[in-house]
Specification:
The complex is a heterodimer. Chain A is mostly helical. Helices cover 69% and strands 0% of the residues of chain A. Chain A starts with 19 loop residues before the first helix and ends in a 17-residue tail after the last helix. In chain B, a hairpin with a 2-residue loop joins β4 and β5. In chain B, α4 packs parallel to α7, α6 crosses α7 and α7 packs parallel to α8. Chain B is globular and about 50 Å long. Classes of the chains: A mainly alpha, B alpha/beta.
Chain lengths: 336, 267
């Protein structure tokens, strides 16, 4: 630092010894990066909180079917908007299209597992691959169209935050906030339904409606996450935060909160990191940030963490030196 | 048989009984596939009494309860609770499901499970008050589980888990208690704790209906029985409905008479 000329904190200019990453984290890296980081943080919170209920309900993989089923919707929406004379790249239009086919994919998963002998995992596999394949075909078709080459629709696969508009960020933030509000309202029936369906039904909870709300929330988060994280990796942002949070608490409400924090930090740090260097893809970096938090949770959490569990095991072995099943005749068994 | 007699009773008298009964079933038929699991069962449960639903495996006992609660959709039949259609009076029922229906790894502590019993009272947006928490603890105290309040539910033994679910039902403060095999796989101490609580519910004037498997304890624990094997076999006070003939009809030749002897002697 130059010898005390500017008073501390008065300058916003980047100093050579301060990493770009820090600027990105503190929203000082310019307009676009700030929008992206804010959007990714909110998306992370919404995905972590919503994904927790999916995790509770043991339907984590359904979100993978939903996210892959968005692709044909994005492509069809582009084609339709272009045919009607609009800008094919309008984000609200593309997201609307993705929501329509995502809902169809969800419906098919539900229908296949409820009405045929297929189990849910088989139904997910079938729906996921068929919808995704259809989407890829449509993307190829769009490539051959004159206006299609600049569409950049393939950025929805892995997310791209370059050229994110203010309106896009507002859409993502608004959707995330709405999802959080709905979770706040319906958290209790969703929790009871996941824990004990029969009791939930006997308590007057409408199981179908509760499931519909939950899957609707997951769909909403998936759709608003398409722009930043992309459809292939959004499932990670729904699942990793609750799985990491589970290590820290045995209380459902705390797991929900911690998952929101884990998701938020992942979105924030991941977006900042990808903004701090050229050509770092946002979605994958956010997922890696989430994974780092998961790994830390798995190792360090008290009670359920691997390190504590290992120490407890060592302690137990010390107190009980005999191999399991050994019977030492005449020896007094060690005090428990 | 009694079943046929009851169907034949004049309508006026039957409706009167229905109105008084906390729990009545008319013509209930439930089917999973082609074969009915419960076929055309009529039953009326007496208020303030403990009734055992007994019958062999696959007789449709649990199915009957689940259909009565709307967990399963019956093909036909009418369920009335305190004289009204079941959905209207659902808040007066507490249900203790079989333990197998629960996700044991779920992040929920014992006290949280009991608080679930207060969900209907608190509603969608309400918060649990200090009084609610005290009430949940009192319910745990009644089943002797208050020391385990902060344990994760999966860390308990089977008998302890069963007691926690009973505490949750107590928290619901219902007038009608429906239990699905509460004594399945629990030790003698837990069985005693559960039956003590059920008898205290009865002494408070509440109605208890329980699916039960251990024929030897029926006369000791229960006032009435509903014996069934897909169809109803007999219904009424233990002395008149829990007979050798009825047991033979429900269980067929599979039941050793040695098992019935002490029962018959008691009756």
């Amino acid at each position: 630092m130059a010898g005390g000329l500017p008073p501390r904190g008065s300058t916003r200019s980047r100093l050579p010894d301060r990493p770009v990453f820090f600027d990105a984290l503190t929203f000082q890296l310019g307009y676009n990066a700030t929008l992206v980081t804010l959007g990714a943080t909110l998306l992370g919170v919404a995905a972590g909180v919503t994904g927790t209920f999916l995790f509770f309900r043991e339907r984590a993989l359904v979100s993978d079917a939903i996210s892959h089923a968005t692709l044909p919707g994005v492509a069809l929406a582009f084609i339709v908007m272009l045919a009607l004379g609009f800008d094919g790249r309008s984000l609200p239009g593309l997201l609307l299209g993705s929501a329509v086919t995502a809902a169809m994919g969800l419906f098919f998963v539900h229908w296949l597992s409820a009405r045929t002998r297929l189990t849910e995992d088989a139904a997910i596999g079938a729906v996921l691959s068929v919808f995704f394949g259809f989407g890829i075909v449509l993307l190829t078709v769009i490539q051959t169209m004159s206006a299609g080459r600049q569409a950049g629709l393939e950025s929805f696969l892995l997310g791209s935050t370059a050229g994110m508009l203010y309106a896009d960020a507002v859409l993502i933030a608004g959707g995330g906030a709405a999802a959080l509000l709905l979770v706040l309202i319906f958290r209790r029936p969703m929790t009871i339904t996941s824990f004990d369906r029969e009791f939930a039904r006997a308590s007057g909870i409408d199981l179908d409606r509760t499931d519909l709300i939950m899957m609707g929330l997951v769909m909403a988060v998936t759709v608003i996450g398409l722009k930043i994280v992309g459809l292939i990796l959004i499932v990670a942002l729904l699942i990793i935060p609750p799985v990491a949070a589970r290590f820290w608490s045995d209380r459902a409400d705390h797991v929900v909160l911690i998952a929101g924090v884990v998701g938020g930090i992942s979105g924030w740090a991941g977006a900042a990191m990808s903004a701090s260097a050229p050509n770092l893809p946002t979605g994958p970096i956010i997922v890696l940030a989430a994974f780092a938090l998961f790994a830390a949770s798995m190792l360090l959490a008290p009670g359920r963490g691997l390190i504590v569990a290992g120490l407890n095991y060592r302690k137990f072995q010390k107190r009980h030196p005999y191999p399991t099943g050994t019977c030492v005749i005449g020896a007094r068994p060690p005090d428990l | 048989m009694t079943a046929n007699l009851q169907i034949a009773t004049p309508d006026a008298k039957a409706t009167e009984a229905l109105r008084a009964s906390p729990f009545a079933i008319r013509g209930l038929t439930v089917s999973y596939d082609q074969n009915p699991a419960v076929f055309s069962v009529d039953a009326t449960f007496e208020p303030g009494k403990m009734t055992a639903i007994i019958g062999p495996n696959g007789a449709g006992k649990s199915t009957l309860l689940k259909a009565a609660l709307g967990i399963l959709k019956p093909l036909s039949g009418q369920i009335t609770v305190f004289g009204k259609p079941m959905p209207d009076e659902m808040h007066r029922i507490a249900y203790v499901p079989q333990r197998a229906s629960v996700d044991w790894d779920f992040p929920v502590r014992v006290i949280d499970v009991v608080l679930m019993g207060l969900y209907r009272k608190v509603g969608l947006l309400g918060r649990f008050s200090g009084e609610d928490r005290r009430r949940a603890e009192q319910c745990l105290e009644r089943v002797g589980m208050v020391d385990f309040a902060t344990r994760q539910i999966g860390q308990l033994s089977g008998g302890q888990q069963q007691r926690v679910f009973l505490a949750r039902a107590l928290a619901q403060d219902a007038d009608l208690y429906l239990l699905d095999e509460p004594f399945a796989g629990v030790d003698a101490a837990t069985e005693k704790a559960i039956i003590t609580v059920l008898k205290s519910l009865k002494s408070e004037g509440r109605t208890v209906v329980s699916v039960h498997h251990d024929l030897a304890t029926v006369p000791e624990y229960f006032d009435n029985v509903l014996m069934m094997n897909v169809r109803k076999v007999s219904e009424g006070p233990v002395a008149t409905a829990f007979t050798d003939a009825a047991l033979q009809a429900a269980y067929g030749g599979r039941l050793a008479t040695a098992r019935i002897d002490p029962v018959a002697a008691a009756g």
